[in-house]
TrEMBL record:
Pfam families to which the protein is assigned, alphabetical: RelA_SpoT
PANTHER family per the UniProt record, alphabetical: GTP PYROPHOSPHATASE-RELATED, RELA_SPOT DOMAIN-CONTAINING PROTEIN
Gene3D superfamilies recorded: Beta Polymerase, domain 2
Protein's GO biological process: guanosine tetraphosphate metabolic process
Coiled coil: none
Domain RelA/SpoT: 51-178
InterPro entries noted in UniProt: NT_sf, RelA_SpoT
Upper taxonomic lineage: Bacteria, Pseudomonadati, Pseudomonadota, Gammaproteobacteria, Enterobacterales
Name the UniProt record assigns to this protein: RelA/SpoT domain-containing protein
Top-level taxon: Bacteria
Length: 332
């Protein structure tokens, strides 16, 4: 393919490459939301994954530098999208989503973990890259997408992204000589970043292990709420539930869920009260509201109010105390 033919191809297919990149980003985002939930998925991705179509002059210049004779096949980054996550352990989540999608063929073109195994003494640019092509010709957003159209998807951590942003143009695509001292400084910074990521990952594992009983109980409590109160009444805010459960962590024992089940079986009006209020009152849309009823019956009301971890929902506690026939000592 001549340079002019390639230029013409790029002009004619700009919209197609843009549509292909957007489609891939959308599919990955949708799968991530399905897996984690919308709020958690938004927090999981640290930089918005915006597809970028390679500029015509940049693409033509690369052909000249690389000597490509079939640039449509050989140039894998005519459109690209980057997913930036917090930790190296998070990269695998995106990788699995890419590899499990049946719409495309995804080939790993760069894997920093393999490179570390081959050369463990080298501290250099780290990222995981996929070359993604559609399995069949298709129409997306009104344009034809052919099986030879490749989108490069990069997945990296925030630390890896900071490193790449700093050195990409200055070191990997230099406009002049790069001093050995500068290369050494860059290698040292990557070594520090790799160590930092490892410490972050270890810290997150410790936090996860410490909070596992609380988190597992919240999942069970959520399922119980859905089963007994109704999914349509649930509007879970994790911060509310975590704050509550951290205060009453000592009560989370093996028999607690059984006690809550027995409570709602014996006092059926509790489910009705929760349903009545859940739409208009956020606290009653939380799984921990069931736990609150149990505390209201089994714990001293004055102590509950004094140690209540959610001051904005103190009135809700008093409503619950009233429901179970316990005086709060304060009118409302």
């Amino acid at each position: 393919m001549s340079i002019e033919d390639f230029r013409r191809y790029l002009v004619e297919n700009h919209a197609a490459y843009e549509a292909w990149g957007k489609h891939i980003a959308s599919e990955i985002n949708a799968a991530l939301i399905e897996q984690l939930g919308e709020g958690a998925a938004q927090l999981f991705i640290k930089v918005p994954p915006t597809p970028r179509v390679k500029g015509i002059e940049s693409a033509l210049g690369k052909v000249g530098r690389k000597g490509y004779n079939n640039p449509v096949q050989q140039m894998t980054d005519l459109v690209g999208v980057r997913f930036v996550v917090l930790l190296s352990e998070d990269i695998e989540t995106i990788c699995k989503i890419i590899q499990n999608n049946e719409q495309w063929i995804a080939v790993v073109s760069k894997d920093y973990q393999d490179e570390i195994e081959v050369n463990p003494k080298l501290f250099d640019y780290q990222s995981k890259h996929f070359e993604i092509r559609p399995k069949i010709n298709s129409v997306i957003s009104g344009v034809n997408i052919t099986t030879d159209m490749c989108c490069e998807v990069q997945i990296r951590t925030l630390l890896q992204h900071a490193y790449a942003e700093l050195v990409h143009d200055s070191v990997y695509k230099p406009v002049g000589p790069v001093p050995k001292k500068a290369e050494r400084q860059i290698a040292r910074s990557m070594a520090l970043m790799e160590t930092t990521d490892e410490l972050f990952c270890n810290t997150m594992r410790l936090l996860c292990d410490t909070n596992k009983p609380r988190n597992d109980f919240l999942k069970e409590l959520k399922d119980f709420y859905i089963n007994k109160i109704g999914r349509q009444y649930l509007n879970q805010e994790d911060k509310i539930n975590y704050c509550f459960l951290d205060e009453y962590r000592s009560f989370i024992q093996e028999d607690l869920l059984t006690n809550l089940i027995d409570l709602l079986d014996k006092k059926k009006y509790i489910s009705y009260k929760i349903q009545q209020r859940a739409t208009a009152n956020l606290f009653f849309a939380q799984p921990v509201v069931i736990f609150t009823y149990w505390l209201a019956i089994n714990e001293d009301s004055n102590k509950l109010q004094q140690e209540w971890p959610l001051p904005g929902y103190l009135n809700e506690l008093r409503m619950i105390l009233s429901d179970v026939g316990v005086s709060s000592g304060i009118g409302y």
